[in-house]
UniProtKB/TrEMBL annotation:
InterPro entries assigned to the protein according to its UniProt record, in alphabetical order: PsdUridine_synth_cat_dom_sf (IPR020103), PsdUridine_synth_TruA (IPR001406), PsdUridine_synth_TruA_a/b_dom (IPR020097), PsdUridine_synth_TruA_C (IPR020095), TruA/RsuA/RluB/E/F_N (IPR020094)
GO terms of biological process kind: tRNA pseudouridine synthesis
Family to which this protein belongs: Belongs to the tRNA pseudouridine synthase TruA family.
Recorded name of the encoding gene: truA
List of residues binding substrate: 117
GO terms assigned for molecular function: RNA binding; tRNA pseudouridine(38-40) synthase activity
Protein name stated in the entry: tRNA pseudouridine synthase A
Keywords: Isomerase, tRNA processing
Length: 275
């Protein structure tokens, strides 16, 4: 009689998390990262060690509503069980949003063709208590149109060396920024950035530079100069992480992952609904 031998399969999960309480995504010796909590829960759920790979590592204080991971496992569970069972083992600030079995050639990082981040900035004298840790703050009067003009210099394929962290490990500083949209709704200024990939601190460094333009410290053309200089020391300081959200990761249709419900035309409303 032939035994039923478990088959190794690849699973993908959609993950959302509030980054305030964690030391970023990537595993650390202190065990207080999103990856650490997720892998502990998956290991307990499957009764075997699980190592995950994510679409994009987020820093301390950065949030995710559209993070994607993959891992290999012999565990055989229904899709809804992966969601409900793993969530039961996670802290309430981390949630599995969906689960999908994928082909062996799927890779959460390398198969991704686009990533979208949203930065929420409240332009007011003090940050409303309910938005502490969830939004950035600048109390200066900001010129939105100047920031929009400046942002358009960044759209397209560029060497983003002036906007990368000094500890960035990417082999190339060249990235293609497909979209940089800035909207204002009351005290909210909402930045939406979509690219094939991002460098370490790239989004927060871009926000910092655009805010400098908004304050009138520089003209919009300064952004073009920064790109040409290819040197981080000439740019603005890295902006606070609080208002940054990884909202979507896009993959080729052949992987059949759940479609994103995030609306790029209404980023604030989509974000509030997802929180």
């Amino acid at each position: 009689m032939q035994e039923n031998i478990p088959l190794l399969k690849r699973m993908s999960l959609g993950i959302a998390y509030d980054g305030q309480a964690f030391n970023g995504w990537q595993t650390q010796p202190n065990g207080n990262t999103v990856q650490d909590y997720l892998e502990r829960a998956l290991t307990q759920f499957t009764d075997s060690p699980v190592a995950t790979i994510c679409a994009g590592r987020t820093d301390t204080g950065v949030h995710g509503i559209g993070q994607v991971v993959h891992f290999d496992t012999y565990a055989n569970r229904r899709l809804y069980s992966w969601v409900r069972g793993v969530n039961a083992l996670l802290p309430p600030t981390i949630r599995v949003r969906w689960a999908q079995e994928v082909s062996d050639d799927f890779h959460a990082r390398f198969s991704a063709i686009a990533r979208t981040y949203v930065y929420i900035l409240r332009n007011e004298t003090h940050l409303a208590p309910s938005w502490v840790g969830r939004a950035g703050l600048d109390f200066n009067s900001l010129n939105i149109e100047a920031m929009r003009q400046a942002g358009q210099y960044l759209v397209g394929q560029h060497d983003f060396s002036s906007f990368r962290s000094s500890i960035c490990q990417a082999k190339s500083p060249v990235r293609t920024l497909e979209l940089l949209d800035i909207q204002q709704q009351g005290v909210f200024i909402i930045f939406t950035l979509k690219a094939n990939a991002f460098l370490h601190h790239m989004v927060r460094n871009i926000i910092g530079a655009l805010v400098y333009v908004g304050k009138g410290r520089y003209q919009p053309e300064w952004i073009q100069d920064l790109l040409a200089q290819k040197d981080r020391k000439f740019s603005a300081p890295t902006f606070m992480p609080d208002g940054l959200y990884l909202v979507d990761v896009e993959y080729p249709e052949n992987f059949h992952l759940p479609a994103s419900a995030f609306d790029l035309k209404q980023p604030l409303q989509s974000l509030i609904q997802a929180l």
